[in-house]
UniProtKB/TrEMBL annotation:
One of its GO terms (molecular function) is RNA binding. This is Piwi domain-containing protein. Residues 76-189 form the PAZ domain. One of its GO terms (cellular component) is cytoplasm. Residues 366-685 form the Piwi domain. SUPFAM superfamilies: PAZ domain, Ribonuclease H-like. Belongs to the argonaute family. Ago subfamily. Keywords: RNA-mediated gene silencing. It comes from the Eukaryota. SMART domains: DUF1785, PAZ, Piwi. Pfam families: ArgoL1, ArgoL2, ArgoMid, PAZ, Piwi. GO terms for biological process: regulatory ncRNA-mediated gene silencing.
């Protein structure tokens, strides 16, 4: 069933709404779909719906879902600037920093002028003047007569400009600019804000659109009736008939995996109940050891409360199975949030000197950081700690540190444990010994891979590819990870396998797959005999292209290690942003839903809704109010998986995520890769993210690569990043041998 045919019919069904609504990718938005909510900083939330035509086992199916996104509020530019910058006094001049923010936010936005009653003109903003309006002078005729913008508007339009200390908007080219006072312009309605939203805005959108499953199902039904597909003339011309009711599909619920903990010094097991479990009367299966730690607070919390919080947190770490020195290496320090980098470097210097005096070669193992009350410093702290200083950090919000509860302290302890090399839980050891389907039969390595792209507006920034791989066969709980910068918005991972030329050694094989295979051999003493590759973030139109390139890279990486080495590979694409919404057949039935009203965790759908020819399934594994699920496409399978075996293994991997107790909806290795790539994109890019340079600090003499996801196991000892004219390449130098001694 050719993809082009599906695209043609999809275009037919999108033609009518494209005339009536604002189109954003595959979604349509309008103010007629419901109340537009204010999300802050001059933006508002519009409601709409997602629509996509897909081939399924039932034939062609139309996927409809409720959606929402951010738009500019149709207000004057002055009002937008006041809200965007959170200003109260419009009379004060804008700083250079404010001007850069406004220029970045308004570039490309269409405005209409309101200083002429008889006519309204529209312009597209290309920039902002570097000087205030009162100092802006331009030629008004061919004789070279020059006049200020303020004088021109008074003389030409009898319009008295008030915000003369603010810069002007600029339209047109630099050679022939058009200057527009902000107070004389209004933002045209219906323009989507495509830049990255801050955390508060994202929260406001989620609050405005969150619905219980029964409400969401009703909203989708109402949207389908509102669209009146039966009256769509374009659909009629092509003979397309859309049923107005949802489709009922069969499902089954996979049993929860048994998890191992420690209890009173003995290993005990627990089974998740409706997808959830807790740490009550349980201890970590392998607790980390921390001999030296420190704390720095950038908040306004009194020092005695900071001390109390640290004591409570360390006590919780020890209660849950870790071994942590109750006393910090140096006294807790409070610092000004305006001098974050200096404070972090000072703590690093003091602790290094203290350890040196004690004759220890170790470095600081953990730095607890209490964030400032004002948001925006988390990324800077992570970047300094993990790319410059090379120390493990745990950030805490001041409102949690001031009033910590037991549940919060337990969650932080779980994060700290995996950051220092411990393990919180594993699949039941007896079950592992008896055999995890597919994994325990022969040495098996499980990969997760993803590419994260820079936010809209940063056209010169690199995309970041991340690949993680399991290292503790047969239990599959610890992962090593590597990252690589590659050309802007390129989805194919470029550095899975690479060959570089060395003047002395000739051709040198490298790349992330090869290095992770070597690391697995060193860790387990066995070479991987099977490969399972979970690939995140690939759209259906890219399936064949990504499969062809990345499978070839995996094959070449294996062949470069040993002649004739070709372990069978299963290549699975994970689509976690799938818009397929799955609802219980009967809402409210306790045996069919969780406490949120969603279908039960572990529900698998493999009939009717999946691709007609490809091997795939939907898996819902977490409890959330949105009713989301992950779609798994098996693009290539040399291991001859049965549907039951792959579904069971995937569900178990969803329950091995180390940083929280409930299971994930996404398979753990793919989620690790996603978070690793996202963290590098958001926090580790040099400058403003537009240079595309990426630097990582190696810990302990090059022993660990620290990221925000520190459950990832230490990377290879020799890892260097270097900059190229157009993009960055990660080069892994050979360290050790493929064949274990």
């Amino acid at each position: 069933m050719p993809q082009e045919t599906i695209q043609v019919l999809d275009v037919v069904l999108r033609e009518s709404p494209s005339w009536n609504y604002v189109t954003v990718s595959r979604s349509f938005f309008s103010t007629t779909f419901g109340h537009r909510g204010d999300i802050g900083e001059g933006l508002e939330c519009w409601r709409g719906y997602y629509q996509s035509l897909r081939p399924t086992q039932m034939g062609l199916s139309l996927n409809i879902d409720i959606s929402a996104t951010s738009f500019f509020k149709p207000v004057t530019v002055v009002q937008f600037v006041l809200e965007f910058l959170n200003l109260r006094d419009a009379s004060r001049p804008l700083t250079d920093r404010d001007r850069v923010k406004i220029k970045k936010a308004l570039r490309g936005v269409r405005v209409e002028t309101n200083h002429q009653e008889d006519q309204i003109r529209r312009y597209k903003i290309t920039g902002i003047t570097p000087v205030p309006m009162s100092q802006l002078i331009f030629p008004v005729d061919e004789r070279g007569t020059r006049m200020s913008v303020v004088q021109y508007f008074m003389q030409r339009y009898k319009y008295n400009l008030q915000y003369t200390s603010w810069p002007c908007l600029q339209s047109g080219s630099d050679a022939r600019p058009v200057y527009l006072p902000m107070e004389a312009c209004k933002i045209v309605e219906g323009q989507r804000y495509s830049k990255k939203l801050n955390d508060k805005q994202v929260t406001n959108i989620l609050r405005a659109t969150r619905q219980r499953p029964q409400q969401r199902e009703q909203s989708i039904r109402e949207m389908v009736l509102h669209n009146k597909y039966a009256e769509d003339k374009f659909a009629q011309e092509f003979g397309i008939n859309v049923c107005s009711d949802l489709v009922s599909v069969p499902a089954r619920v996979l049993p929860p995996p048994m998890l191992s903990y420690h209890d009173s010094g003995k290993e005990k097991t627990c089974a998740p109940s409706v997808g959830q479990w807790n740490m009550i009367n349980k201890k970590m299966i392998n607790g980390g050891i921390i001999d030296n730690w420190a704390c720095v607070s950038f908040s306004r919390i009194p020092p005695e409360e900071v001390h109390r919080f640290c004591c409570d947190l360390i006590q919780m770490c020890n209660m849950t199975g870790m071994s942590v020195n109750p006393r910090p290496l140096v006294d807790n320090r409070s610092a000004n949030p305006n001098h974050i980098e200096n404070a972090l470097r000072d703590v690093y210097r003091r602790t290094t000197e203290m350890l040196g005096k004690q004759g220890h070669e170790k470095q600081l193992q953990l730095l607890i950081v209490i964030l400032p009350e004002v948001s925006g410093s988390y990324g800077k702290i992570k970047k300094v700690c993990e790319t410059d200083l090379g120390i493990v950090s745990q950030c805490c919000l001041p409102r949690h540190a001031a009033r910590p509860n037991k549940q919060y302290l337990e969650n932080v302890a779980l994060k700290i444990n995996v950051k220092v090399g411990g393990r919180n839980t594993v699949l039941e050891r007896a079950f592992v010994r008896n055999g995890i389907p597919f994994v325990s039969e022969v040495p098996t390595i499980i990969f997760g891979a993803d590419v994260t792209h820079p936010p809209p507006g940063e056209d010169s920034a690199s995309s970041i590819a991340a690949v993680v791989a399991s290292m503790d066969w047969p239990e599959i709980t610890k992962y090593r990870g590597l990252v690589s910068a590659q050309p802007h918005r390129q989805e194919i991972i470029e550095d899975l396998f690479s060959v570089t030329k060395d003047p002395q050694r000739g051709n040198v094989n490298g790349g992330m797959i090869r290095e992770l295979l070597i690391a697995f051999r060193r860790k387990t003493g066995r070479r991987p005999e099977r490969i399972l590759f979970y690939r995140d973030g690939v759209s259906e139109g890219q399936f064949s292209h990504v499969l062809l390139h990345e499978m070839d890279a995996i094959r070449k990486a294996c062949a470069s290690l040993e002649e004739g080495y070709m372990p069978p590979v299963t290549f699975v694409v994970v689509q976690k942003r799938d818009h397929t919404r799955l609802f219980p057949d009967v809402h409210g039935r306790r045996d069919m839903t969780d406490k949120s009203g969603n279908i039960l965790p572990g529900s698998v759908f493999e009939l009717m809704t999946c691709h007609p020819t490809d091997f795939g399934f939907y898996l819902c594994n977490n409890t959330n109010i949105q009713g989301t699920s992950c779609n798994y496409h098996v693009l290539y399978d040399e291991n001859n998986f049965t549907a039951d075996a792959l579904q069971s293994l995937t569900k178990k991997l969803c329950n091995t995520y180390a940083r929280c107790v409930p299971g994930l909806s996404t398979v753990a290795p793919a989620f690790y890769a996603h978070v690793k790539a996202r963290v590098c994109t958001r926090h580790y890019m040099e400058g403003d993210g537009s240079t595309g340079e990426l630097n990582i600090k190696l810990l302990g003499g090059g022993d660990k690569l620290v990221t925000d996801i520190l459950v990832l196991f230490p990377v290879c000892k020799c890892l260097s990043f270097f900059s190229m004219p157009s993009f960055n390449v990660i080069t892994v130098l050979q360290s050790g041998y493929w064949k274990a001694s």
